[in-house]
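Two proteins follow. First one:
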Amino acid sequence: ALATVAFAVPPMFGGRRKEGFTSHLLENRKVDTSLIDENSFGSGTITQKLDHFDENNKNNWQQRYFFNYQFKQDDSNVNIIYISGEQIASDSTI
C-alpha cells in the first residue's frame, strides 16, 4: 500500500512539480482566428537588463510582449498585464 502511495504522488523538486506549473492542455492549442481582428493585436520586444543586481554586468536581452487592442476604448487608460509565467507565451493567449 505504501508503494502505491509513493508512485501516486507527483515528483517534486523544491516544493513544486518537477516540470513546473505548466499545463499540457495549453500546448499546441488552436485558436479560431476568424473571431480575431488581425489589425488589433501583435507583438514587440523590450530591452531588459540581464542582471539587475550587478552594476558591472551590461548584458541585455529582448523580452517579448503581446498586445491586443480589440476592446480598447479611447476614453480609458486601463491596461491589463498578463504574466504567462512558465507557460509558453503566444498571441493566442491574449
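Second one, unrelated to the first:
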Amino acid sequence: MTAALAIFVGCGNNSNHSHSHEAEEQEVHEHSHDGHDHDHDHDHDYNHDAELEIETVQPASFNAVIRTSGEILPAQGDEKTVVATTSGIVTLGSGSRILPGVKVSKGATIAVISSEEMAAGDPVAKAKAEFDAAEKAFERAESLVKVNAISQKSYDQAKKDYETAKSSYEAYKGKFGEKGLSVVSPMAGYITQVIVNDGDYVEAGQPIAVVSQNNRLQLRADLPEKYWSSANRIYSANFKPSYASETFSLKNLGGRLISAGRTAAKGTFYIPVIFEFNNAGNFVPGAFCDIYLIEGQKDNVISVPETALTEEQGVYFVYLKVCETEYKKQEVKIGESDGIRREILVGLHEGDIVVTKGAMQVKLASVKGSIPGHTHNH
C-alpha cells in the first residue's frame, strides 16, 4: 500500500538507508495508484529563504482522544458587568465604537445616558440641587447648634442629610458632560458582550455591557452521551478555534480540568466538560472549537505532526530526508489524530527522518528542482 518515491538525486551513497523501505517500494511498483506512480529526479540548489524542520521517527506514547466540539468562554470572576447609573436614553461609546472584542482601559466610556427629556427630569441636576440645599442647611445648623438655638438631634439630622446628598452628587461628579452621564468600564479588558443598542431606554441598574480581563479563559467541550463512561478518564484536551489554522494544547497553556459532568446538560445529548487555561492573547471568548479530549495514552506508537502530511486524492504522504541532497516521497497509512500529531500505521520506521514543517514546499520544489534549507527537531 505504501510508496517511497525519490524526488531528488544528489547522494553518492544512500543504499543502506533505503533498505528499510525496500518492501514497500516493491509493493507499490506492483500496485501503484493513478497519479502517484511517477518518479521525479532533479539536481537542485538550496533555497535558504525558506526553512524546513525535520524530526527523527521514534515510537512513543500517543494520546487516545475523543473528538468533539465546544466553545471558549470567559473564566468565572474574570469579567464584570457595566450597568446604567441612571435612567435615560443610551448612546454607546464616546468617540469610539463599542463592540465585542474591543479593548478598553479602566475608566473608558462605555456609554452616555441622557435624561434631559425624561418626565422625572435630569437626575444629575436634581442631585446637585439637593446637595446645594443640604449643604446650606447643614452650615446653618452648625451655626445654630453652637448657640443652642437647635437641638443636637436636629443638627445630627442636618448632617446626615448633607452627607447623603453629597454622596449621591459625587457619584455623578466628573462623569457628566453636555450629552449626559458617562458610564465607564470598571477595569481594563475586552468587551465580550453589548447588551443594549443605541437609542434604547435604560433604567438605573440595567446591564449595558460585559467587560472581561481575559487573563484566564474556559474551554467547554460537549461530550456526546455515548462516551459518558469515559468522562472520568478525561484529563486534558487539544483544541482548534474556528478562526485559527493551528491546534493548541491545554498543557502548553497552563490548562487544567475544572469539571466533567455525569449527566447531559438540560435539553441536550451532551455532557459538559470544562477546562480553564491561560489566555496567550489570541483567543476570543465565544469562539467555537474542534476539540480533542484526551482520555489516556497508547504506547509505542509511531506518529508525526499533522504538518508533515500531504494529501493527494485521498492518499497521504510524508517526505523523508535521505541525505543532505535527497528527499523521498513516502506513502503512509494514517490512524488517529489528537489534533496536533497523527498516528502512522504503515509506511514509517524508527530512525526515518521526516520533514515536519515545509512538506508542501518540498513537494513544489520537486518540480522546480530546489529544496529549502532545514532545521532539526530531536
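SUMMARY FIELD: The CA atoms of residues 15 and 322 lie 10 Å apart. Confidence is low (pLDDT under 50) at residues 1-10, 13-20, 22-49.
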